[in-house]
């Protein structure tokens, strides 16, 4: 099946500022794709380009097989969007906004709407101004999730939600995932959320994609932390190219090791005799920090 | 009040262009009038004649206020009689911009969480505006004395400008407390301004006729400031009254501020329907929800205006007969038919310009929807940009039509000759549309400068108020679409200029829509 989103070399400038600097993004149909990046990396701009709200200065994008700019409204019938910073009309209630947006997209599932309102514990009778940020977010989420569409584009959808509601959000997205016919582009800062929900992810920084693949792929690119208590002395570790930050103390060693140096490093440990061993896979946080702080280096 | 001075500096920093612009622009108006009148009359006799004819034109009296003398100073004050309204508008918008608009945007919350007292934001806004009024008054006084006008009258006229600023700064502060939104506060403020202007207008016209409705002027703060009569009576009691009103509005605003939560208004939020009505399913249906309050307000206001314009028409003839004396002068201005024609012909473009304000306000809602992020939610659904913008434009074009129709209808119902009165009102519509088209063009081409559409109205109003006096070249006057509107009922209805105006409006609006389709949103 064709990819739901294909973007290559997207460039977008606002005056002297380059927001997107050759960004690539590929989202397969039916997957939940995490879209990560520090503040100002260009996530929202990318999404606005994909929605045909902004024109690119370079590169090519395809969305559900169409041109996001030229075929905007036709494509919008097949997708639902939750903006990162939502405000609604002060004189419309949440329920009215949900119904209106659903109808403008071409209809929404009544039963599912009511079910989602209940699960998100949303009072649909309040007017736009009376909602807190989290509740505004819920209105946008219910409007999007109750629509029968192929693609959900969610821009930091859980910002402002409390942990309980975050959990509800995860359950709903996992349900969507099990249905298998919906594609989700999830821009997020919450790493545990991305870890729990996403099949693949793309990390961007300063308007470029720096990493893309499954979580396992990305983990492969980084280091595992090993802590071991040894029976005898070990000498060969320091000589292995992929071993970093080695410390030895009272027969205990701690080091980080690249994926391809794992095997020779463990062989050295086994040769010395292992009393106990803790291996810690790289967390998404570490992955993140490595990419985010690379700027400073 | 802690932190007021710091906030005052913030207000000055944010308004460093806007504030000098209106203080200077409006403050120099009397000076411009003086130079205009200086060159207009070759002899003193001509000036006295002009004053007598003007005082007999009820449309002029309605628009500018009563005229009791024929000195240059009095003519300048009278001809600039609309200035207190403009000055008041600037004042109340400035105060609301720095109080309720900030509060609505959440900036006040941030400010108030620092070492800043509860009253500081309001106090800073009021002090800045009041000081601006004072500076404006000084500009008026100094420039007029420089022109050789009597010092006493010059000071009095300066005071008229200052107290107009002060009173409506107070009204702005009050409106900002009553409404929960900046939009609502502006609506209340402008409504108050409109009502007091119409009260003065009706009272003054009536006073010069049979006087049965003359007490209406005494209800109006705008009426009071006219009663200073600089260069004539130089009465100072209205200034005392104005200061009392200013203090009262400020005290009540401060009291209301202590009685409400940050971000709240006087009216508590109520619950609404949990689901949308079946009809709420299109951009036009949404636009109806967003525009209907504005529409009802304007149509109601125009209907009231029509009632008053119709009601005072009877006084108009009496006034002309009185002041012109029976005979030559009265015949020269066209007899009773001519007087009425002149009256309706003067009033109609005023209605047109007010309708243009409505049109621009409604059209700029497009930009507003874009800035608040609402447009993003709508445009990410199966709604095209043209359909979205068009749904708002519909109200910018049809709304003023309904409002003008209401004005004409009610004038006709009270005065008689409904068909003619409706025609007189509606003939302004193509010119109104041109300004709506200009707003759409700006929204499409230069979204960040979209508010400059208001400058369009300001220019049109200025051309109407000072253009004939300063004897601008015809091509300058021709810049205003209202110059091309047939001057009913005196002139006959000709279709060509109306069609041309409509075509220009369509071209401007169409170009704006095309540009909107091609640019980024939000742009």
Automatic annotation (TrEMBL), chain A:
CDD domains: ABC_DR_subfamily_A. Residues 5-231 form the ABC transporter domain. It is found in: Cell membrane. GO terms for cellular component: plasma membrane. GO terms for biological process: response to antibiotic. InterPro entries: AAA+_ATPase (IPR003593), ABC_transporter-like_ATP-bd (IPR003439), ABC_transporter-like_CS (IPR017871), ABC_transporter_ATP-binding (IPR050763), DrrA1/2-like_C (IPR025302), P-loop_NTPase (IPR027417). SMART domains: AAA. It is a peripheral membrane protein. One of its GO terms (molecular function) is ATP binding. Keywords: Antibiotic resistance, ATP-binding, Nucleotide-binding, Transport. PANTHER family: ABC TRANSPORTER ATP-BINDING PROTEIN (PTHR42711), ABC TRANSPORTER ATP-BINDING PROTEIN NATA (PTHR42711:SF5). Belongs to the ABC transporter superfamily. This is ABC-2 type transport system ATP-binding protein.
Automatic annotation (TrEMBL), chain B:
Signal peptide: none annotated. The chain crosses the membrane at residues 17-34, 76-98, 119-145, 151-175, 187-207, 236-257, 295-320, 340-360, 393-414, 420-443, 450-470, 490-516. Keywords: Membrane, Transmembrane, Transmembrane helix. It comes from the Bacteria. This is ABC-2 type transport system permease protein. It comes from Actinoplanes italicus.
